[in-house]
Amino acid sequence: MANPLKQLAGETAIYGLSTILARIVNFLFVPFYTRLLTTESYGVVTEFMAYIAVLQVVLVLGLETGCFRFANKEGEDPHSVYSTAMTAVFGINAAFLAAMIAFCGPIASALGYAGYENCIIYLGGILFLDCITAILFARLRQEHKALRFAVIKTVKILTETASNLVLFFWFPSYCARAASALGKSVAELSSADVWLLDLVSATPDFGYVIFSILVSCVVCALIFVPDFIRFAFSFDRRLLHRMLAYSLPLMVASLPGVANDFLDRFLFRYFDTGAENWRSSLGIFQAAVKLSVIMSLFIQMFRFAAEPFFFQRAAEKDVKVLYARVMEYFTAFCGLIFLGVILYIDPISLILGRDFRAGIGVVPIMLLSYILLGMHFNVSMWYKLSGKTGYAVYITLAGLAVTALINILFMPAYSYWASAFGHLASYVVMLFLNVWLGRKFYPIPYRWGRIFLSFLFMGLVYGVSMLLDRVMFPYDPGAGPSGLSGSMLAVKLILHTVLIIFYAFISWAVLRRRS
Fold it and tell me: Distance between CA 151 and CA 146 in Å, rounded?
């Protein structure tokens, strides 16, 4: 069992190279975004990211997982599987992009962004390119080309980074110099003066972020051109029907799942306590969620490696014991991440601009929510491996209903706090339903006692840290942003580090026990 676990850990680490870089770069831009953009403008960025996340699930049709299933199926030609999937995804996304270009004006007006029609077109372009390359990335995962996957993702990330740097730190000053040379104000400049003004504004706004993503998608697609040409677009209609019969339920299930993750972003527009400032509340919430990035990062890394890993070992003897063991290691490591973020939250919170720090309190809730989401992914393999993907729809719809209910009932009074607890409650419900159904249709011998111990140790360490902080490190408003002097903050972090090491030692001792 050691070798499969080492393979999974190794591929998780390689996929994590690019994923870590993406999240780190994104994280490093948070201080700039939360200082160069208003809370309202950052809220708009968050809203557009939610649209991209939800629409991408629809436009890929669930065929990423479908490709894994059929490419590993005896008697199927992997090339035909991926080529058929690519043909279907390309056709649907080309039609979607054409519609976005044709109706960008009405869509922008309906969303309250008249004058930003370009951003609607950028949205369509991002989705078109991301969905096509999703199939190409899936093939790399299938072929265990984790390093090439990571390199291409890294290039994409660095391109987005460079675009952001140029737009935020060079372009506004360039426009100011051009305006001065022409004897105009910046507002009077046109594309005849600076050609990029056809694409972005002369002053920083949310359009910079969206345009940078589009540029990175274009570069990524160009890297894949040789792979794209080799597909030759062979198309097997019968194979597509069988793939869609398997994949569409996953897509339908993923849609409420992703909608569940982002539904609160849409509901801010209608239910936030200060409806006139809902974009500001959304911006503050999203900035706080960014501080939980390391947990969602690990889950994404794990998912990239685990999904093909689980499928390819499905026929092996005692594989269910392996799946159960993976869950134990996963939960224990998530506990370590939780404590690492929460016990160092004082210096971490300084990453955010002053106006965005009001939402720091939701960070523990979001971290715990992400742990449950990762456990949900582990447990949900039962319906993917058994082919009973239809149950995924009911599980995720139940989670979506919980999210909607909590946000609609409590957001008018509690704003983004309702969003955080909505995530937590939703993932609890989905995890419970998944475990219950999995026991019935595809029982896996999870040792829930050990998993519970990870949560117990995590909670005890967190509780002890809070008690020590209250007794030894009372908040002093005059001591700086952290409420402590430099020496006291150092002592506090040393004690917290000892607690984290204690948790790691105890967890490792429990995991090493075979009985």
Answer: 9
**Residue pair 27/289 in contact by the 8 Å Cβ criterion:** no
Structure-block tokens of residue 127: 């989705």
Instruction: Tell me the per-residue pLDDT of 151-176, one tens digit each, with 9 for 90 and over.
Output: 898 899 889 989 999 999 899 999 98
**Percentage of residues in the chain having pLDDT higher than 70:** 89
Whole-number pLDDT of residue 18: 65
**Confidence label for 247 from pLDDT (cuts 50, 70 and 90):** confident
Average pLDDT of span 64-90 = 80
Which DSSP string corresponds to 47-61? HHHHHHHHHHHHHHT
Q: How far is CA 34 from CA 134, 206, 275, in A?
A: 30, 12, 21
**Among 100, 105, 137, which residue's Cα sits nearest to residue 18?**
137
Token code pair at residue 85 = 């999937």
Q: Are 399 and 355 in contact (CB under 8 A)?
A: no
pLDDT digits (tens, 9 = 90+) for 250-275: 787 677 667 777 888 888 888 887 65
Q: Which two tokens stand for residue 180?
A: 């001065």
Contact status, residue 365 vs residue 423, Cβ threshold 8 Å: yes
> CA dihedral in degrees (255, 256, 262, 268; nearest 10)?
130
| CB-based contacts of 317, cutoff 8 Å, min separation 6 | none
- Give the position of tokens 């503050």: 284
> Are 407 and 263 contacting, i.e. CB atoms less than 8 angstroms apart?
yes
pLDDT at 129: 96
Q: How far apart are CA 467 and CA 484, in angstroms?
A: 16
Provide the angle, in degrees to the nearest 10, between the axes of the packed helices 486-512 and 448-472: 160
Rg (CA), the chain: 24
Instruction: List, for residues 8-61, the tens digit of each pLDDT value.
Output: 556 666 666 666 666 677 777 778 788 888 888 888 888 898 889 889 888 998
- For 194-237, the DSSP string reads -GGGGTS-SS--HHHHHHHHHHHHHHHHHHTHHHHHHTTT---H
Point out the least confidently predicted range of 62-66, 120-124, 366-370, 499-503.
62-66
Structure tokens at 357: 């720090």
Given a contact cutoff of 8 angstroms between Cβ atoms, the answer to whether 307 and 68 are in contact is yes
* DSSP letter (8 states) at residue 247: H
How many Cα atoms occupy the beta-carbon half-sphere of 174 within 13 Å? 14
Return the HEC string of 152-178.
HHHHHHHHHHHHHHHHHHCHHHHHHHH
